[in-house]
Amino acid sequence: MDFSSFLTSLGTSFIIFVVLMIVFAFLSSRPGNNVVYYPNRILKGLEPLEGGYKSRNPFTWIKEALTSSERDVVAMSGVDTAVYFVFLGTVLGILVFSGMILLPVLLPVAVTDDGWKSQTTSNGTFSELDKLSMANITQKSNRLWAFFICCYWVSIVSFILLWRAYKHVSWLRGEALKAPDVKPEQFAVVVRDIPAVAEGQTRKDQVDSYFKTIYPDTFYRSMIVTDHKKADKIWEELEGYKKKLARAEAVFEKSKTDANPEGTRPTNRTGLLGICGSKVDSIEYYNEQINETITKLEAEQKVTLKDKQQNAAIIFFSSRVVAASAAQSLHAQMVDTWSVLAAPEPRQLLWPNLKIKYFQREVRQYVVYFIVALTILFYMIPIAFISAFTTLQNLVKLLPFIKPVVRITVLRTVLEAYLPQIALIVFLALLPKLLLILSKMEGIPTESHAIRAASGKYFYFTVLNVFIGVTLGGTLFGTLKTLENSPNKLVSLLASSLPGNATFFLTYVALKFFVGYGLELSRLVPLIIFHLKRKYLCKTDAELREAWAPGDLGYGTRVPGDMLIVTIVFCYSVIAPLIVPFGALYFGLGWLILRNQALKVYVPSYESYGRMWPHIHNRILASLILYQVTMLGYFGVQKFYYAPFLIPLPLLSILFGFVCAKKFYPAFERPTLEVAANTMNVAPNMDLVFRAFIPPSLSSEKIDEEDFEDARSHV
């Protein structure tokens, strides 16, 4: 990529962003689009726009985002979202404070040397930017001291801001859990690995007697976990018939006109996909199906609660202090029996995973790790090929017939600017769902934990395959003949070629924050989908609500994507300091735009009170260590004799991570008693707490009948 291609990429990305900003300003001011741009406020019963439409200008959203407080974010989108903004703000702070030294010090030091005559960072084609990087420094030069000192500066700034962030998130989590309102999960624990039932005893009696003995004064009741997959399926079928009935009734009402006051009753066919079979009256047919399905569901509920009990239960206590104490206590002499953990929000429970036994979970975890390792290994091969083959020069060598297209200057410039980055982004979009499925296969009990696990896997995948894979792929492809002649030069070639991909990653970061955040703000895709559904598919209010349901921020993919940018910017911050302002723009623009989305658009699907933060913190440290090791290797390639003095940096990072884990992490892993002991406004309604954990497919007005006693103990 030459300098003109880089400017083309940057310029067109910026123009696209400006256009998307204008589109957002226009479309978000249309009342008919409120449900797309302000769904969070609408669901909370607030006016879509504060002050009305007439008092707003295209930049009002920026002022609202900048003036919003952390308390506003917690109120609208929860603690997890507020913690995500702590992450964005922390990385932004690291880059800003680092850039205050790196840019004014390293750029003049680099540009006034002439090492580019003997080496280049972009295969001899990008010398304009090479002069602003470390590759322009002559080997063994005393100028390398400036870059050496800056390595320590970036690390020290990171340590200070990460410590402050961990401390703040810990406080934020504590304050949220201290809240005086009743949270059902604070009065319950989840028990797994319950031993086999003794002869003549029911599972309910076994669990009740065990916990009544340990907690005689505060034990409230238990709920035995059941295998309710079949009941879930019937319940979903029932809900489907209810929706179809509501739709048929809405169609019938709309058919009533002055010319036809009685309307036309809708009909449908009962066969496959409604295209074959006998034709029936839709309203009568769905009413019949609902009645039949209700009967079937009630019968399945009785069978499930009596005959499909599992070796897990949810235990309820009348005191949240006792529940917190139980969650962090070892209850049995053997670790593989009576495993107790803090209960999550009811909506987070992965019911099928609760029955998986202790040693099965351990084996599953290692099997999944092995599968993920293979996935990373085999994904690395195609990504390396993508990074190598999607450069225009290599494509022309492999596909000579495209030469006439490449000779067109405009097309050549656009292809060079975007082809590798777009190919990489599309390729990466295929992976997250696979990693989430694998994480759930480990036996993880909650949705938020599964998302954190998938996020960690996705982070290591992106770092190993995108950052390292692209670097190795481009290097190996470009220097294959050299390696054939001198295989012993592999290490030196890889290290010296690290800056060679700075241009690629510079363009990648710019594309991500200009185009990515422009699309995020404009919400063009959700807007188009909503209007198409409203015009052609939606007949009822419920269908309309489903059409504009906004979803959540998507931490499972968003955080690893951000962490990839952190890794890239860290690793190139000293080698090519020009990447630092691009990284700061990414996180600054992300903070601003996602602040608007969190306050007005996205609705959290769960609340884990900042449990994601320790994982984010560890990933930032992993990126920092990778950066420190990278710089150690690169100083070696530059034959800087004092390079070994960088060895303490990764050791300090590991020590810093160890201290943070010891000081802060236990309060994230287990509920603390001082937080649980905080006074509540009202006494909890324990029956409501209990009912909050009943799966929708097992919820029934007949909860206290004898048929339900085996799985649900009485007070």
TrEMBL record:
Residues 5-164 form the CSC1/OSCA1-like N-terminal transmembrane domain. Belongs to the CSC1 (TC 1.A.17) family. This is CSC1-like protein erd4. Keywords: Calcium, Ion channel, Ion transport, Membrane, Transmembrane, Transmembrane helix, Transport. The chain crosses the membrane at residues 6-27, 81-107, 144-163, 366-389, 418-438, 458-480, 563-594, 615-635, 641-661. It comes from the Eukaryota. Residues 364-635 form the CSC1/OSCA1-like 7TM region domain. It is a multi-pass membrane protein. It holds the Pfam family PHM7_cyt. It is found in: Membrane.
